[in-house]
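Hi Y.,

Following your request, here is the sequence exactly as I used it, all 147 residues.
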Amino acid sequence: MNKECVNIQITPNRIITVMYRYEYPAIYLDNDIKINGWTIGKIVKIKYSLIRMGANYMEFILTDSDGIQKIDSYYYNHHKAADRMTPETDIISDAIKDFIQGHMFIFNNANWADYDAGYSLSKIKQILNSSKGSNVDKIAKIVELLK
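Below is the corresponding structure, written out as tokens. Let me know if you'd prefer a different format.
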């Protein structure tokens, strides 16, 4: 299988080139991708969704600076015909690029704990700024969120 490449702009001053080969059911990156202390593993699994008919998704393994790994799934062709899923159509390279650029909010955190705390703070702000419910209701929602 031939190698493909995709250039991905990480910041205005940083572009990375990702080399990969596609051999169903996986994408094999030449190297792990390192961004701000995070690592995207070099084997990306491709799976077919039983929930979203006709949709395939990729499973990226993300490792934070503390070595904690989580799998993040990314649906990439739910709006494209499955028979178009070949390297020639750029669906794969577009999906890798879209995943990384669309997940910079994760890579801008120190680790998974920092990401989880930021997510919780964001939800708390939404609850506090909501015009729905009394203050007692808002506190109850925040307490439930923090459990």
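Confidence is low (pLDDT under 50) at residues 79-88.

Thanks again,
Q.
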